[in-house]
Amino acid sequence: MTGGMGVIVPFIDLKHFDTKSFHRFLITNSPSERHHQSVYLPAGNDRAFTLMEVMLVIMLLGILTVLTVPSLLHSNDRWLLRSTAHGIANDIRRVQRMSVQECEEYKFELHTKKFYYKIMSEVVKSDPIKTVNLDSRITEITSTLYNPKYGGDMEGYRILQFSCLGSPNQGGEILLKTKNGNSIRITIAVATGRVHVYE
Predict the structure, then answer these.
(1) What is the pTM for the complete model shown?
(2) Which of 41, 66, 80, 129 sits 20 to 30 Å CA-CA off 28?
């Protein structure tokens, strides 16, 4: 029997279904008994998603995206700043350690406009011991380290130099920023040259 909303079919145990048992069901039960053992199955069209449901799902996905993307960008910025700042701090400590161990003056040179830094020997005039180009996602560097006031391409140059005793020529700080406004600060103590990273 069919209707406007669905189809009435006999109840069938699909786990144990076979043609013989179905045939036996038809023979041993009257039409009225079969009707009482029937179940209602919705018509095929009733099981489809409506346009309203699809639009609701899309709207919820859009809201979740708006909420999570800024958080992901912030987390990515923080990771980038941390890794860069700790890399710079470790290289400054390396410069200080080499100055003490070899009793020679080594320098940490930072170019705030071209976003790179170098480790140099003050005694041996040769190629840099190490050169690091900073990630392009870091969009601003400011520093209060010693400014030799170079002009032209060397504008924005900062120098941190250590003596054989490990003391710096001048203390100060380095501030790194990203375009999303996140920042991190590296400080160098005046007397001891000790390096700290502040988030």
Answers:
(1) 0.65
(2) 41
